[in-house]
Each structure stands twice: as structure tokens, then as C-alpha cells.
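User: My instructor asked us to take a sequence, write out its structure as C-alpha cells, and then describe one feature of it. I'm not sure where to start. Here is the sequence I was given:
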Amino acid sequence: MISMRDAIEAALSDFVERHTGVKPELKPSKKAHLASSSFLRGDAIAAAETLSSHAKDCALFSAPLLSRVTTENGWLLFFFTADAIDAFAETLPPAEEPDDSFFMRRLWIMVHHDDAKTPDDPKLLDGFYAALFHAPDGEKRFLAAPKAHDGNARVAIEQRLYRMAKILLWERRDPICNTPGSDTRPF
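Assistant: Let's start with the prediction itself. The C-alpha cells for your sequence are:
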């Protein structure tokens, strides 16, 4: 079973290379879901415009993956959709009970809510993709995201995290292969 992280990186790399001729080096970012410095010496603004105009061509399991592409200081900043989360979560079997880490136990609680469409909330998407790509403080950002809302809105969002939690549980099910310290890619 392919991981969502690998599926996104493959789809995005192929998309960027097809439309710009450059194979990007993708990295987690605090300013976006993923970023690439592959255009530092090139025209990042033109690349972002080209990629944005073809964003509908970038999909994950037939769902739109890319919501927008921006640039900052020569970096391409990629932002993904909630639709990609929903499409990927539907391909996964039920989540298995995790180990005893705090983050994994919180995810386990979330997968016991009803299956609902992923909220299209920017802070929540930022937290999810940060946790997925092992960005600094990604787990904390994901767990803190619903706290940006008050009262009933917070409860409503917390009860709709089933699909995000299911994906993160599957992504981290093998602690030897999926822990940030064991990954050989540069972060």
C-alpha cells in the first residue's frame, strides 16, 4: 500500500516536471504544505503562474490535489486540497490500534468519530500536511488547529477529523520505516 506522502510527492514532482521541465526537490515548509527551492536561480514567479494555471491537472486518486502555488524568495510554495485527503482516505482499510504515544492515541480517538468529509479549514490543512510530511512541530500544529475555533465550531471540526486521523495512523503504522529520524531524505 502506497503512503499518501509518497503519492503526493510523486504526483507533484511529475506535475511540476511536466509543466516546467524541472524536477523539484520537495521539502516541508512552515509557510506552505510543501516547498521547492529548485527555482531559486530560475524564474519562480513564471513557474508559479504556469503551475497555477494548470493546477486542475494535478490530481490524487482523481481528486484535485493542488489548490494553489505561490512563490516567495525564489521558493515555490504548494498548497493542497481537502479533496485529496478524502480521496486517499477512501482507499484505506480501517485503521489499526496504535502504540502508546500521545499523538497516536489522539489519532485513535479521532478515528472513532463518524466518517465525514474533511473540513476545508486552512489551519487544519496546514496542521495535517505538516504532520504528514514531518515538518517541525507538525504533530503539535495538527492537534492545535481546531483550537483556532471557539465553542461549537471547534467541536464540529474535531468531530470531522476521522479521515485525517485515519491517514496519519496508516502513515505511521510501521515505526521503523515512518519515523522522522529513520527517513533518509533531507528535511
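For the description part of your assignment, you could build on this observation: Residues 175-187 have pLDDT under 50 and may be disordered. Try explaining in your own words what that tells you about the chain.
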